[in-house]
Every structure is written in structure tokens, then in C-alpha cells.
Give the backbone structure.
Amino acid sequence: MNKKHVILTVVIAVVVGAIGFFGGMKYGQAKAQTAGRGQLSGQYRTGGGGAGFFRGGAGGSQGAFTTGQVLSKDDKSITVQSPNGSSKIIFYSGTTQVGKFVSGASSDITTGQRVTVTGTPNSDGSITAQNIEIMPDLQTGQSSGTTSQSTTSTK
């Protein structure tokens, strides 16, 4: 009977482990679908899946990143002032994804907003955007790290 008890314990442990593993996978998949791009993980890589944060893979290019306040905007670009006072011109197009912790579009970008931009650096120092995140106004008590979001391409 002792041998049967050991076998039963092992079978129960395997079943519980399998259920836990499957449940964890489903939970992770559900969280990944709602996590959003604003979490600043390795999701902002450009190029072909290179190692590290904002790095391109083989044949890819080094990605560009900036964050700050929108100083000006037209139908193809925004100028963003970083916290250190410098500014960058950011070019965007209909394929640039714009998020704001809910679905967003380039028409949602306004002067004075805080944004985070990832994209490709240009030789003149500007950036061609792949993603523009409209950050919440932190003065209203909102947090930028835990809210889920979805995005759409600009139109």
C-alpha cells in the first residue's frame, strides 16, 4: 500500500502541476493581450528581433526613443521638448501607431501633451516615428505604468 500511496501522490502532483501550468499560460496570454505598448518593455524594438532594448536584429537599425512635451504639431510632424530642454522633430504618417491608454490617432496629439516616441533616427537628428504614446496628465493623479491600452494606426 505504501507503493500505491507514492504513485498516487506523484500522479496527483503531476496533474496539479499540469493544471497550474495551463492556467498560468492562459493567464499570461490574457495579460499580454491587455498589457499595451506603454509598459516600456522590449516591445519597442525596431529591426528584426535583436537582443536588448530598442535594438535592431540582423539587417535592422538602431531604434530611436524620446519622451517629452509636444511644442508644436502639423499634419506630418510634431516637435517634442525633452525634460532636459532639448527638442526633437518627430515625423509621423498613416502607418505610425498612436496610443493614449485607449485607442488613439494622430488627431489626438495636441500641443502641451507629454508623449513617448519610438522610431528610426534620421541623419538630421529628427526621428521618423513608429509609435507615439500620449502620456496621461500626471497632475490629475493618473499613473502611467499600470493602465492597459489598445492602439490603432493613424488615419
